Every structure is written in C-alpha cells, then in structure tokens.
Amino acid sequence: MKKGDLGIDLGTSSLLVYQKEKGLVIDEPSVIAVEKKTKRIIAIGKEAKEMMGRTPRDIEAVRPIRDGVIADYTIIEKALQELLRRTRPKFSFTKPSVVVGVPAKVTSVERRAVVEAALSAGASKVYLVLEPVAAAVGTELDIFDSIGSLVVDIGGGTTDIAVISLGGIVVSKSLRIAGDAMDEAIIKYIKKKYKFYIGQATAEEIKMRIGKAFPTLETYELEVRGRDAIMGLPGNIRINSEDVLEAITPILQDLVLSLKQVLEETPPEIASDIIDRGIVLTGGGAMISGLPELFIQETGIKTVLAPDPRTCVAFGLGKLLDDDSKLERVAVNSK
Ligand SMILES: Nc1ncnc2c1ncn2[C@@H]1O[C@H](COP(=O)(O)OP(=O)(O)OP(=O)(O)O)[C@@H](O)[C@H]1O
Asked: So where does ATP get bound (predicted)?
C-alpha cells in the first residue's frame, strides 16, 4: 500500500490539512464562497469567512459541513480540489493519496460520498478515519494497545464521546451539540436577561475570553457591543463569567449525561483502564475553561485537556500517514 500524502480534517468550524513531511499546512475557517449558479469557488477559509453576510447577490458564503455532516457534496468536491491544488508540489503530476477524518456516526452512504468526492477532486486513494480515533492518535494515547481510552472530542457542531481499544471504537455516542451551541445559548441568555442583542462572533468571543464551565473558577468581565432590544439602538454591555456559566449550563448537563451513559455501557475491564488512564478532552469546544474540573466532579475520573485540542484530529491523521499498518487498521472504508 502506498502511504497517504495528506490528512484532511473537514470540520464544522475549521478546515485543517496535514501534509506529509511538512506538517500542518492549512488551518482556516471552514467557509467557502461560491458563485451561486456555477458553484465556482471564489474564496476559501479566512477570505470567505469575511464575505459571510456581506456577499453580492450572485455569490454565497457557505459552511459545507453542518452539524458534523456534509451539507453540500458538490461544494465539498470543489473545496477538496482547491485544497489538493494548494498542496500540490510545483511540477508534480502525481495524484496524492488522502486520509480524511469523518464523524463517528456517519452512515455508509455518507462515507461513500466522501470517498467519491475526494476521488473526483483528484485523489489517487482515499482512507476514512473516524474523528475520535484520529483525535486520540493525535494525543499521546496509544490506542493500539489493549488498554482502553476515553476521548471526548468537542468540535463546533458535534461532540464525539468514544471508548477506544485496540485501534477500534468499543462504545461511542455522538451529539449534535458542541462549541457553536454554547455561542447560541449565550446569545439567547443575554437577549432574555439584558434585553440586548449580540451577534454570533461576539458570543464566541465572550465564551473564549471569559467563559467558564465550573462555578468556583474566577469570574471576569467583558464589555461587548450589540443592540439594545427595547430602544433598537447600538450600545455596549458588561457580561461576566457567571452569565456564561448560567447560559451554557443546559449544554454542560447534556454533555455530562452522555458521558455517564457511555461509561455505563463500557465493559468493566475497559472501565477500569479508563479510571487509571483518565479522560482526554480534544477539539476546540473543549477549551472552555473549567471543563476538566466539571468532568472530574461529575464522574470522579481524572480528566485532562489535550495540549493543542483544536489540531488533535489533523495531527492524528498526520501520524497515521507515516504508519501504513496502523492506517490500514483504523481506516473504516477498507473494512
Ligand atoms: N479558547 C477557546 N475557548 C472555548 N471555545 C473555543 C476556544 N477556541 C475555539 N473554541 C471553539 O471550538 C469550536 C471549534 O472547534 P474545532 O475547530 O475543533 O471544531 P471542528 O472540528 O471544526 O468541528 P466539528 O468537529 O463539529 O466538525 C468552536 O465552537 C470555537 O468557538
């Protein structure tokens, strides 16, 4: 088998590409601007994100992945074409083989569609790896031994909770709630409590800068801009960490409940491995402050945030590019 050349993490929020021998070569927002009629790509990543909400009538800026599921295959195919073009070495005509991360609960039809899209975008061979498995490989966990590991991968649109042993998923649960749902909850909360409208980008900034998931952590304040819902005029408002905690509590409760369900379904031998090894948090959504503390309090199990949570999937795919036999073991489309 020819080793893979590119590892592609197509996320709801971010688009990351790991290129063999080069490392992470693309890390951009997962937004694509296309001409409506022809679906011709106008811009991708940061440039396309800036166009969102302010595009001329014949251009639309879209997120090709929604809730962890591919929303538009034509656009994905074009986006993959563009990524392959950007990463192709000069004067090279050989087609790259690619490893693509896919959410744990994708159906076989969706898997086939991703493979088709990558092949018609110009890949020579396509391997699909489940995102929580790639995320675990991207941390320091050895998922190929017989000791079980528990990874909670919280992205923008989806959360995957997976128990992994011998390179495969033993028990898992996917939720359609993650970092973006926290932003939505903050918007709703501020509207209700302060009668004040803020946009999605402001909500995300609040979450990242002063958000917390655990009550005893320090509280900070942040002044943000928006629009007064009663007067209808632009204005400023001060929000604090307690507001964020209260806003996102229902989401945190859902995450904890699902985590407990996965633990309940885990075979006893593996459950005891997890108590020894602990829970590892990956994905950008896991970066809200205090999440490890919350999971420790709720499960009694040691929990750590992976060193660079956002890039775990891409780095995991990168590690697999270097190891044919491990890639063969975890690729889900060859089975
Ligand atoms: N410092 C931070 N604190 C809290 N949340 C953060 C932080 N940095 C990033 N995020 C959140 O992480 C989420 C994106 O994570 P990530 O890039 O891992 O998602 P993705 O892989 O694109 O999504 P998915 O796995 O759902 O397809 C966003 O909701 C973003 O707001």
From this structure: 156-158, 204-207
